[in-house]
Amino acid sequence: xxxxxxxxxxxxxxxxxxxxxxxxxxxxxxxxxxxxxxxxxxxxxxxxxxxxxxxxxxxxxxxxxxxxxxxxxxxxxxxxxxxxxxxxxxxxxxxxxxxxxxxxxxxxxxxxxxxxxxxxxxxxxxxxxxxxxxxxxxxxxxxxxxxxxxxxxxxxxxxxxxxx
Length: 164
Description:
Blueprint: H1 2-22, H2 25-32, H3 39-52, E1 63-64, H4 67-70, E2 73-81, E3 88-96, E4 101-111, E5 116-126, E6 129-131, E7 137-145, E8 152-162
Antiparallel strand pairs: 1-8, 2-3, 3-7, 4-5, 4-8, 5-6
Helix pairs in contact: 2-3
């Protein structure tokens, strides 16, 4: 009889430990939080459970946009004087007609007078936040330039993004 009780106790404790070892974040929380526990105690349990069961992040790597994606992006740009500066700022908006998430664009400014050009890479933004523009959505970009050519054109020559 003593052997049966000992085996039962060992089985119960092993099962409880196995539940904690092979459970999930939610199981860990339910297993460790007791009623009447203080807020700081609950926070400590949550931190410990999150350390035991971290959130799995999938890192998405941006790559150069293929020309088929670049051809589906339409937009416009304009030059603006920066406040309290002699520099100019280019503000642009675009529509992402592709099935890619766009994280940056490379804009080429052509000076028609000198036949020279300069490329500017700009991250995508929403207001002051750097972000990505999802497929079939509008996005914005901006970058600084030292001077506005008197006669100019622009083109989209590249960018980065990813496809889910």
